[in-house]
Design a protein that fits this description.
32% of the residues lie in helices and 24% in strands. By secondary structure, it is α/β, with parallel strands linked by helices.
Length: 357
Amino acid sequence: MDFEQYPDSHFRHLTRSDVIEAARDVDIVAAVAEALRLHSAGHSVLPEEAYLGWTTPQGDAARLLAMPGALTEEGRAPVIGMKTINASIGNPARGIPRAQGFTLLLDPETARPRALMEAAYISAMRTAAVTALAVRHLAVAEPRGLALLGCGALAQAHIALLLRTVPTLRRITLYDVAPDRAKSVAHHIATLPAAADIETAVADGPREAVRDAEVVVPVTTVTQGYIEPDWLRPGALVCHVSLDDLTEAAVLAAGTVIVDDWSLVRDDPRRLLGRMHRAGTLLGPDGTPRQGVTARPGARPVDGTLGDVIAGRHPGRRDQDEIVVSNPFGMSILDVAVADRIHARAEAAGLGTRLTL
């Protein structure tokens, strides 16, 4: 084969502004719900993620995640792609977002690139969409109070989406270790037409922020739990987005614990639920401990997946006063599903730039 004469492959490149423009006509919550349903039914491929962590020259923790995935619905060509998302804890102090990366879509026939697009907006909005679905299926009826712990880009994505999808909201309480960030987000909320009837407050501490909230959403960078079970009001839903904010005691005291994918949680050695499984305090959905590990007294199982709840295979919340924990580890297939719809819209609207390899 003469590689020099092989024709170039064309693909569509979408900048962040292109992605945002295309996403205006995409129902991201519906795309994520459909991907969760397909995953629950076994119509997905979700390999292990690749993780590379390092310390920057200035001493900040940084990491690279590469996460491939595919959706394989019968009667339709598979949707195949990969998300890479990179982050440095020191970026906000530099005036730039903590995380950024690319989402890649592949042609299912040739395996060549179809589209390459900015990943951070898709990642933030699909994360908020998982929270919106958790609220829809796991929160008490008509939740009125939302607590956001951490006031970065993810918090703003949640505000934008939850104001549209949870019409009963009347209070948003914010907390951040950097008070100016919380005040800035509070000012931002005050400018939103959808927040005209919303009371916004900045809390002095995390316990004050969560104590009256029916929905608690930690979006922080912590690696050690601090939310104790007695901080939470009866019936609270904790959408455990940043995965390490709850203490082990809070997980064990919860009435129901829901994950997005048990295998991701089971195989992860870094985040809270994976550490608990390795320690024998958290069991799989079938009630079994990790192979080679003895279940400890008081150990509890994971109850099921959000996809099973959406599909009606799991009842979700069982009691109006129980604490429910939704622990979304984060699945590449959700980013790929949203990216596929954004790409289709970009193609129809002529957004982005056609590039060659």
